[in-house]
Amino acid sequence: MRKQLVGNAPLILRTSDGTEFRAPHPEFVLVGRHNLVIEDEQGLLDIIDPLHVVSIRPGARRRAKASV
């Protein structure tokens, strides 16, 4: 799992129940022996069991708002 958390692009982690967790950068994901902690852009943490992660894929970058 750690090998998938490289680069500097956002990630989407999907669990076995279909829930998607978005990480704005791989540094927002902490891999432990028994838990996976994902911090979102608001600073909220999700703690999940790494055995339930079924996919890790690149997420879309958010576009910067154009100033008017």
The biggest beta sheet is recorded as: 3 strands, antiparallel
Mean pLDDT: 87
Q: Which CATH first-tier class would you pick?
A: Mainly Beta
What is the 3D shape?
Answer: globular
* SSE order, one letter for each helix or strand: EEEEEE
- Would you identify the CATH architecture? Roll
CATH topology: SH3 type barrels
- The count of helical stretches stands at 0
Question: What is the topology, as strand order, of the major beta sheet?
Answer: 2-1-6
Radius of gyration: 13 Å
Percentage beta strand: 35-45%
Number of strand elements:
6
Q: In angstroms, what separates the terminal alpha carbons? A: 42 Å
Summing up helix and strand content along with how strands pair, one would put the structural category as mainly beta
Q: Tell me roughly what share of residues is in helical segments.
A: under 10%
Number of domain units: 1
List segments where confidence is low: pLDDT < 50 over at least 5 consecutive residues: none
Textual characterization of the structure:
By secondary structure, the chain is mainly β. The chain has a single domain (2-58), classed as SH3 type barrels. It contains no helices and six strands. The chain has strands at residues 11-15, 20-23, 29-31, 36-39, 45-48, 53-58. It has a three-stranded antiparallel beta sheet with strand order 2-1-6, with no helix packed on it. Strands 3-4-5 form a three-stranded antiparallel beta sheet, with no helix packed on it. Strand 3 and strand 4 (36-39) form a beta hairpin. The chain starts with 10 loop residues before the first strand and ends in a 10-residue tail after the last strand. The relative contact order is 0.30. The model has no long low-confidence stretch (mean pLDDT 87).
